[in-house]
Amino acid sequence: MFFASDNTGPMHPAVAQAMVAADAGYHPSYGADPIMDGVRAQIREIFEVPEAAVYLVATGTAANALALATMTKPWDAVFCTPLAHINVDECHAPEFYTGGAKLSLVGDGDKMTPDQLRARIEGWTKGDVHTSQRGPLQLTQVTEMGRLYQLEELRALTGVAREYGLPTFMDGARFTNALVALDCTPAEMTWKAGIDALSFGGTKNGCAGVEAVIFFDPAHAWEFELRRKRGAHLFSKHRYLSAQMQGYLTDGAWLEAARAANANAARLAAGLRDMPGLEFVEEPEANMIFATLPRREHQRLQAGGAVYGLWGDLEGDPDERIMMRLVTDWSMTHELIDDFLALALG
Amino acid sequence: MFFASDNTGPMHPAVAQAMVAADAGYHPSYGADPIMDGVRAQIREIFEVPEAAVYLVATGTAANALALATMTKPWDAVFCTPLAHINVDECHAPEFYTGGAKLSLVGDGDKMTPDQLRARIEGWTKGDVHTSQRGPLQLTQVTEMGRLYQLEELRALTGVAREYGLPTFMDGARFTNALVALDCTPAEMTWKAGIDALSFGGTKNGCAGVEAVIFFDPAHAWEFELRRKRGAHLFSKHRYLSAQMQGYLTDGAWLEAARAANANAARLAAGLRDMPGLEFVEEPEANMIFATLPRREHQRLQAGGAVYGLWGDLEGDPDERIMMRLVTDWSMTHELIDDFLALALG
Amino acid sequence: MFFASDNTGPMHPAVAQAMVAADAGYHPSYGADPIMDGVRAQIREIFEVPEAAVYLVATGTAANALALATMTKPWDAVFCTPLAHINVDECHAPEFYTGGAKLSLVGDGDKMTPDQLRARIEGWTKGDVHTSQRGPLQLTQVTEMGRLYQLEELRALTGVAREYGLPTFMDGARFTNALVALDCTPAEMTWKAGIDALSFGGTKNGCAGVEAVIFFDPAHAWEFELRRKRGAHLFSKHRYLSAQMQGYLTDGAWLEAARAANANAARLAAGLRDMPGLEFVEEPEANMIFATLPRREHQRLQAGGAVYGLWGDLEGDPDERIMMRLVTDWSMTHELIDDFLALALG
Amino acid sequence: MFFASDNTGPMHPAVAQAMVAADAGYHPSYGADPIMDGVRAQIREIFEVPEAAVYLVATGTAANALALATMTKPWDAVFCTPLAHINVDECHAPEFYTGGAKLSLVGDGDKMTPDQLRARIEGWTKGDVHTSQRGPLQLTQVTEMGRLYQLEELRALTGVAREYGLPTFMDGARFTNALVALDCTPAEMTWKAGIDALSFGGTKNGCAGVEAVIFFDPAHAWEFELRRKRGAHLFSKHRYLSAQMQGYLTDGAWLEAARAANANAARLAAGLRDMPGLEFVEEPEANMIFATLPRREHQRLQAGGAVYGLWGDLEGDPDERIMMRLVTDWSMTHELIDDFLALALG
């Protein structure tokens, strides 16, 4: 019963099949493969931006760090929340790729408000050579606590950035989970909401390892290409990245996978509401559930074979409440979820 | 008729099958997958070093840059040839990952001699705070011009490094092509010849995108892990890297693929010896052929459908000799080679 | 009436005289001047550490950034307060020199408590490759708000760092102002209180531009020398740095200057207590005063010729309280202070 | 008898006097001192560029590295000679400040020719993401071997750079020595000869530690200011940099000092022509002399109290010729030179 992450499951069949199909004959290397031409066209169509610059890399951290570095000077502050993946889970990849930019933390959780953002921006005086300069706004959608920015929230935050002339970047590692939850179009959740660049995740939603970086304004394209190569993220046998994304986008596999993942989380959450002692930290909105339980319950669940993320030690005061994270993906069966619920509700 | 590179062909069947086999069920992420445990054990056995530190990344540039960065201080000189891949084909990834080390060029081609190396090392005065400090020796095997360092050459060069207390690194993007050409053991071509760390290539010899970084002394292991994550090269669904390497190493697929690639190059070279006007730049020793031809011959070959690397423009003085690079891999058929030869010998 | 900073006044006569005295004849360059030998010996004696490594640079930011970089890996978190000079006034010099370390902010002001420090350290899980690694503790003495860490506060904070095996660094841009205020020895305020390395400021206390970097354990000496040269902070005509520090340390000029500066601040603060509407933000403890006044009072003071730091615009709601910073140095006369007080109380 | 460098002598009296004069009263910090306003105006007038951006730093390496970083992307090649100070004497400051640019070496000595430059530029294929991109041309005037680029040589080299759209930078650590030797105007030796930015040296010609960075096109001004602060090279008590440059430029002190230095070298060289066994490596053109002598002669000179740079060990085969460097500055007396000549010819 594995709920540790959405990076522990297999490829979606559509992705796996595209990989196999691509694995024959000659393909030009380094992104010149014809599959990539198709992927680029698909993404431009899906996002309704014919001139968008589209690139593939293999990890979410690479997508975030390379995209941000293209938008950020070494002396800039990047505005993000304290729980942002770029702040806590990337071992300083953003600082490395930007050449020493600072993450300037807004709010105290996984989401920020326009007022918090404005206050933080104002905290760095424009034109003062001693301080951080004002750089891009970064937002994660789905957030690191499994929540969503509603479209009006996105627009309000990017509106503040726009007032100050700052670019905006969305970490969309779970982009599609958010998209199907909000039931909007990719354009509505990005450039129509003021987003300039996007990490469009594939890995957590059925791919083996592929993320697209999308700049809605292609001005940065060549610099991005240089940064990708210099960062050692340009694949020689690029077809194997292209093929994943091709399979992912074909016939709605990406949407289907995200809907399945979200539905699995909803089923799990619905069941857990009846578990005595369990409290949701945030109301689940996509494919992640954060909840607290007394330690004794975690001991019981893990002894029963459940695997999930735990904030704190398994040993200690049995009454202390500690936080768990349960993540679902498309590949989980109802049976698996129901087995877990049976264990939980004991 | 594609001879542009050994990164344009498909996966070796053993690799592709391992990928498919790995694509089922739950696997812990970030390198904790059990397939990686097997890969680590296999590599340790193949290299006869039970404690070696073994890691996987997806690109050769990542393997080189991360391994070198672990061995190099920002103020160090890395000793390599002017034609080294790290010098001419990695868009400053080594400088980026080392934080500004300098590539100090030895000799004037793809190979260096002990005397050239010694002279260059002596060129940086030990203990002088103003100059580059003496850092690692880097050697590429197979070289960038398709040649080999014989074991005694390797030992002589690493011996010079050892005299000065300098570590040694081998870029083995085509490691196995060299190995089967020299008909020696992996240990003989590496640590027994004085090599401290190795990029052990898979991508160019039948994998989709995987290279192992091997430190024969595991002292650097944790630093390498931090550098890999910070460089955004740690795969979440790491099983798909592990599986490639597993398939590659199982039942001698790696050796078989390299032998086939080298044999294809030999067949090609043998035929080309009869081509009027063709001159080998270096005697081919592995799976790459460098040769010059009058431009008119290149025009004829490319018009006939041949694709390969060309140093210079296709248009110009028809009598001027320009250099071509032909690369073979395991997937090329005798028929393909013979078709090319038929065209060449016309 | 200039109270904007302690970097706007002239050299202390003892420093100026030493500069003039050094300005004759031949001196070896790059720190090999005999004056530096004397300075090194003086500092070792003052700090009671015969083997301390001692270096000079020209700016406080250089001292901080180079010292920290020597103690910090690029993937480390440096623990400091949000108001730390290294966080808000150095334009990412720490991030630049460390190669991308993160400043992990402790507390919400200019001082931190042991509990706050411990919580922040615990926030970065040891051995987790994804997050920041735990790096050095940084403390500023005098703090950026003009306050002091008492010796027992220093010992408590460094004790927490020691528990986790973390090194400690003190930004002592106003070291001597703190020293004379606490009336302790340099050893008591540094290594006896658990400090491993120190920026020992000269510039703000009567020098033209010189700071010593002191490592009580000389293990880092050579790396520091390389970092200083690579950062372009090694002076060729080093005698002019040495001479400043020599003059500063001779016959107690440094202590005398700091006592005068602190006494000037005390005189100023004593007078201001009678100013209607003025509120100290923190009780002044050294040579800086932070206070709030209604904007109309600032308008009146600045119209009257007073120059000082102001947090906020001079134009706006006349009743709004905004913060001022007044800084004194040794060179200010009682007359100047009394003139300002006459204006203020006027 | 000290001829080791032009960084071992005292300040020129005009500089020392300006320092003393500046050392009184209040001055705004960080470059806002009124002395700097005068210096900026003086330099703009001297170079005949009213809009030039002018900044001061304390070391030549800082001037070079910061100026180059402003003109260079991390993936660019900087074209310079193998003997360039930036290549051999700055401990990777250029690589550090540029974020990993590569110094691409042109020619095999201290000067390059247009053909050598063109060949090296052509060696990096435009638009190839794998290789270095083409960056600025760097020239040192006076060269590191004491030679001059004639104006037509400068124009020819910058003309090649211009053809490729590349910016040009002059390391003028000994700018004035070259200027008076060529008897031309500062404008003629810089922007009229195609130079875009300049390190205008003061330290080696009578200052304590100051270099101006001049951009003839001020487009880069703000970025330079950020880089200077981030590099920790912005002085708080900036007046002491300004004053040096003010004294240096007033009443022709800079020209007088350089003429004296060059005349001293000429006197020394004239005498040495009669020394048996001495051979000039290059004909001296400014204030440096490079010559070879049998080792036994070096042993005799150094035993006699002469101090100078030596390429090689003082111990060894007495007949082996090794190279010496003799450098003169304005402060050396005829008597000192004649004493040395008496010893040499003795």
Automatic annotation (TrEMBL), chains A, B, C, D:
Single GO term (MF): lyase activity
InterPro entries xrefs: ArAA_b-elim_lyase/Thr_aldolase, PyrdxlP-dep_Trfase, PyrdxlP-dep_Trfase_major, PyrdxlP-dep_Trfase_small
Residue ranges constituting the Aromatic amino acid beta-eliminating lyase/threonine aldolase domain according to the UniProt record: 3-291
Pfam annotation, one family: Beta_elim_lyase
Aminoacyl-tRNA synthetase is among the record's keywords: no
Keyword field: Pyridoxal phosphate
Cofactor section: pyridoxal 5'-phosphate
One BP annotation, GO: amino acid metabolic process
Gene3D superfamilies, sorted: Aspartate Aminotransferase, domain 1, Type I PLP-dependent aspartate aminotransferase-like (Major domain)
Subunit structure: Homotetramer.
The family this protein is said to belong to: Belongs to the threonine aldolase family.
Record-given protein name: L-threonine aldolase
